[in-house]
## 1
Amino acid sequence: MLRIDRLSVEMGEFSLQDISLNVDKGDYFVVLGVSGAGKSLLLETIAGIVRPSGGCIFLNEEDITHKKIQSRGVGLVYQDHALFPHLSVAGNIAYSLKGRYPERKASGQITLQLAERMSIQHLLHRKPGTLSGGERQRVALARTLALNPSVLLLDEPLASLDVQMKKDLRRLLRKINQDGMTILHVTHDYEEAITLGQKVAVLNEGKIIQAGSITEVFQHPRHTFTASFIGIKNFYSAQLLPPDTLAPNGLSRVKVSPEISFLMEDQGFSGEGFIILGAEDIILSHSRPDTSARNNFHGTIQEISRGIKGFEVCIDIGVPVHAVITQDALTDLQLREGNEIWVSFKASALRSIAG
Amino acid sequence: MKTSIFQLTLILLGGLVLLFIIAPLLGMFFKTSPSDLFQTSQDPEVIRSVWLTLWTSMAATLFFAIGAIPLAYLLARKKFRMKQLVLGIINLPIVIPHSAAGIAILGFVSRNTPVGKAASLAGFDFVSTPAGIALAMAFVSLPFLINAAMDGFAAVPVRLENAGLNLGASPSRVFFSISLPLAGRSILTGLVLMFARGMSEFGAVVIVAYHPMITPVLIFERFGAFGLSYARPVAVLFILVSLAVFILLRLLTKDKIHAKN
């Protein structure tokens, strides 16, 4: 579908180096990176706005590296939406239809259909300057979808939106992807990557340092930057179980594997979602601890490695759990790979992310 | 207390400058009787010259806008070597004496020059014709349009043009549907300024075409031949016409801008 092969771009003192990505048809691919990592530059290069200094971009097996912007068939949604301020919402959406649909009626019908799909049909006569951030983002999406692009490039689409708008827009983006649109989404927010992406690539200082499925990248970061950037290793897709008579008041039970479930306070989702557990919130002990911690599991130490904040201990309790402990704690507990150990954490240590 | 003295000083100094502009004009108005003004407004020679001034300036503005607006766009968007030199050349007519500009134009279009000869062959002449007047007016007033349009285009985010291209539009469609409308306010201001400046030009026009007489030349001629009291009513009438046209154009362009927003 979209294949980027050893792409290099020079932009003053900054450069994208040796970028290779493969986005399959129907993928929701997220490029994750901090501000200044080169995410927007990558999208602008794919869109043809910036000329690469090396490498190739293939779309549907066609080399589009040096093709004109207007005939590439990729739709770019800018972070600040770049709506045309002098045109109405309808005028913005219909911009790409002019020429392709000379009949005003046909163009009007498509505009209306897209507006309905984005739930902005009541805004068609408004000017972009009078819209909220979320509304503008929907107009920008409708305008780009009117182009019927082969791939949709999204530059930080959820930035600067409030929580509810983010939630609504995430649902909309997921729906657009489920309807068959291939999406390449760049963001600095790992929660967006978890909740939306099927595949993720981590971009740092103009280089892709890791790419793969969300699970691969988040659970097995291959680079210290990835680990420190995402900041968490313990994240699980989870299912909220029905109210449990055994669960103490105010706590819910979430299933993270067929055999393992956690007790948690935060109910940020219903049905399915993701949960995150901070590696520093885990207590390790040789016997079952007699504490207020609601989650206590017996497991086997798989691996001990030196990390940024101390030693990282990976324990298999039925699912992998990563704990961070100090050098002193490692010495005191005399931990070795293969040892059996108790893992404890509070219900409040778990954080949920809506799916 | 200190602030108020400072503000009073500012008001006093500013007021003096305003007075310097208003006093001679008001003096001229008060010294012109309504009957003189009425008689002047009936004078066929005056009427002819006012119309000639208005239409030649308008023609110069519209004709040169065809090239000046694309030039302004290029200057706002493209980086190239010697760009500063080109910008300097564009502003040259503002700094050189307009009589010198007139001499330069005459040297360029008079009958014995290649341009003049080519025009003669086409049955056309620049010297002492409305075409020559328009040319002289355009020469001195073009910087106002180019600079205003350039500022207007520079204020249009390149991102919007790229968004247009990304949506499948050709560069020309992007120019006409995005860049031009968004820079429209500045371009209209530039057009009004160019028209107004062209209309008030004397130095360059008088050298290229003493006849037919535009109003500034007519005022000069009446002053030289008959004195101040004969020139004054024509001057007052022309100022009134200029003000009316200027206000009308500003209102028209303002309406267009409001309609667009």
## 2
Amino acid sequence: MSSPIIARRPGLGSWLTLIRCETKMVVRDTAGLVVPIGLPLLILMMNSSAAGGEVVINGRTALDVYVLPLVITIVMATIGIINMPSFLAYYRRSGILRRLSVTPASPAMVLIAQVVVSLLQTVIGIGAAFAVALLVFDANPPLRPAAAIGAALLAMTAMYALGMIVAAVAPTPNSAVAIGLVAFFAVGALGGLFGGRDSLPDVLARAGEWLPFGASVEVLQSAWAGVPMEPLHLISLTATIALGGLIAAVFFRWD
Amino acid sequence: MEDLTFGTGGRPAGVPNVARMESEPAAVDVRNLSKRYGGTLAVDDVSLRVATGEIFGVLGTNGAGKTTTVEIIAGLRRPDSGHVRVLGLDPRRERAKVRQVLGVQLQQAHLHHALTVAELIDLYVSFYPNPRPARELLDLVGLTSQRTTRFEKLSGGQQQRLSIALALAGRPRVAILDELTTGLDPRARRKVWATVEQLRDENVTVLLVTHAMEEVERLCDRVALLDAGRIIALDTPAGLVARAGAANLDEAFVALSGKELEESA
């Protein structure tokens, strides 16, 4: 009966089970799938036929250089800023994280599993938009594919960082959705979500370019057009990650 | 598990194994525990020792400090002062080890609402190195026929039974069960009691938080009576009745605490 008690962390099988469970939670939350997969497709449809023909730079069309980076950024921003924090806020509020904290699984396992599942969701969202753009509207792949993937990873991490700030400050699941939506539309509007930043007042256009949404669009544009990325945009995304990590570390509560 | 067979074999309730209590280290050892929230003392100098295999009741009105006490024992809250050991381990400093041997059913704990009974059981089972098989857990709490039902679609009693199954997934040596049968209908309540009696047969130590007298009489070897954060009596259920010169535990409770227990809905 009194065999020595050894602390064992849950193994690989447990991680896979948890990721499978989180996937089911995300898939069964149908409403949460509409925005990150439906909205980008809609924006793609509305802008593609007009932007498809004219070559803007290096054999890339307006569709490639302006529409696709925006669409990809919308997928990443909706998942990172709205969906992920609302799941975390729900798990915290409902006591699921507290329940897990009395098992050998740590609440951090849930966070990591959520990130894995939302990355899968992002890949599907971007993949769907990209496939439609390539097959229906004759879009072209980025001139610098590796740079595009790197830029997308950096931008996605920045969106998660922003999402962690939302999760850290939101007291309830509803407020997490509300704060996430406001944050998304704020950085989106300033970053070109409703049309180019050129139409904005100078100060706002500059701010929008510095904020993660605008910076994400900019670095993806550079990768598509095959031109060097501006250090300013990379610094902005990196700074968002650092700031989000810091704020989440100080203010995020598991229960 | 549809038939309602109750604990066969094992010691009957109310007969503590005194010899074991003296010779072995306590499964749960709490000394001089205090916890203050703002101006109120939620737990006030509580001490108790629960022997291995004992079913120990923590009884009191709402706000008596029952849940705070067991949450400190589970390592969920930090006491202001006092000493807590579970199987000789400190629940906060040796958290990872305690998690292997302690099963906890929290009051009103919610689970992933869109997952099914079987999915939740598979998930919690996966956390432990030597778990109870999923089929056995389903059978233990009588949820085999609900295995493909989502958590959100279960009745209150079924959710409660699932919650107990998950607390037992890792074959705990100590189980904390908080407000086990609150809100259950009599039939569901008897099923849950049968599960606890099965734990007695397996020599699992159980800390049972309750405000249901019938539950205490039926299950508990000993019971601590909490009032305003203090233990006002600690004895066998029969001992409490005798001490208060009362006819039953209800009357004993009123005599000892000066309060009526509210009816558990």
